[in-house]
Amino acid sequence: MALFGGIEAGGTKFVCAVGTAPDDIRAEIRFPTTTPEETIGRAIAFFQEQQAIYGTVQAVGIGSFGPVDPHPDSPTYGYITTTPKPGWANTPFAGWIKEALGVPVAFDTDVNVAALGEGMWGAAQGLDTFLYLTVGTGIGGGAMVNGRLLHGLLHPEMGHILLPRDPQKDPYNGRCPYHGDCLEGLASGPAIAERWQKPGTELPPEHPAWELEAHYLATALVNFICTLSPQRIILGGGVMSAPGLLPRIRQKTTAYLNQYIQSPAITKHTDTYITAPALGNKSGVLGAIALAKQHTQ
Ligand code: ZN
Q1: Ligand 1 centre and the CA of 177: distance in Å?
Q2: Tens-digit pLDDT profile for residues 40-65
Q3: How many Å lie between the centroid of ligand 1 and the Cα of residue 162?
């Protein structure tokens, strides 16, 4: 059976795998993100080793940190474009992989690809409109809308929406280099650490940090629910592993919506409506394999 390659390219680590589905992963590797040459080089070397064992992969799917160019008809398709990450701006990521391996390459944002993985095999199976939001080093959202991954003009940047902030209750100005106190500036892992002078992993569940974190994330979810009308919201990323955070977000989201959206999915079944990824920390790399599969169909 033909195999596919998947790359989950994060700003801090890369995950590469070869296989066809969650129960058929033949090989997987994780390594830190350094320079583009070294990191993409390691991914290429991994696939070359695997191809020597299993034969040529049919296609490679990439879910990348960004901003990226996901439009196939654009001259910079498959590029990481204007990223502030040092050394990575204007990197022809998909092109390098395609050239080295000589196979078709499909390319999208890390969060769109994670959404695709959850739709194919995880918490959003059978749905056509849903959201995958990651809350970690950064905040980003991928959306499936009417069965297609949403790109639009470039691609959504859900981490950079602006939220009301009460400086009396939260004097922290945020850390987004572009907007200060946008969602990512206020609620990413590094924002939590800077505001409280301690990483989230060292803040106990009863610490006020979590009430505030749930407040910002629930406010963002209300905006996304009112804009996209998702049938489900999947919350992934390192920050979401804080004990008790997910139930707090559910409770606040329902409270802030205040019965306005009259759907039992939200009013009665919030536990399944706002949920953790069913694929755990593999939504991205499995989604990349799903993207490669779709690409060849
Ligand atoms: Zn921002």
Answers
A1: 7
A2: 999 999 999 999 999 999 999 999 99
A3: 8
pLDDT in tens, 96-114: 999 999 999 999 999 999 9
The whole-number pLDDT of residue 297 equals 81
Residues of the chain with pLDDT under 70: none
Helices (H), the chain: 36-54, 93-101, 110-121, 183-187, 189-196, 208-228, 245-257, 264-267, 270-273, 283-295
Question: Ligand 1: distance of its center to the CA of 52 in Å?
Answer: 43
User: What is the whole-number distance in angstroms between the Cα of residue 246 and the centre of ligand 1?
Assistant: 23
Report how far residue 38's alpha carbon sits from residue 34's, in angstroms, rounded to the nearest whole number. 7
Residue 38, amino acid: E
Are 183 and 159 spatial neighbours (Cβ–Cβ below 8 Å)? yes
DSSP assignment, residue 294?
H
Determine the distance separating the centroid of ligand 1 and the alpha carbon of 184, expressed in angstroms. Answer: 6
From ligand 1's centre to the CA of 175, what distance in Å? Answer: 8
Q: How far is CA 31 from the centre of its chain?
A: 18
pLDDT of residue 85: 87
pLDDT at 174 (0 to 100): 98
pTM for this prediction: 0.96
Q: Which residues contact 112 (CB under 8 A, 6 or more apart)?
A: 63, 70, 132, 142, 143, 149, 150, 151, 155
Residue from 296, 292, 291 nearest 111 by CA? 291
Domains defined for the chain, CATH in brackets: 4-110+281-295 (3.30.420.40), 123-276 (3.30.420.40)
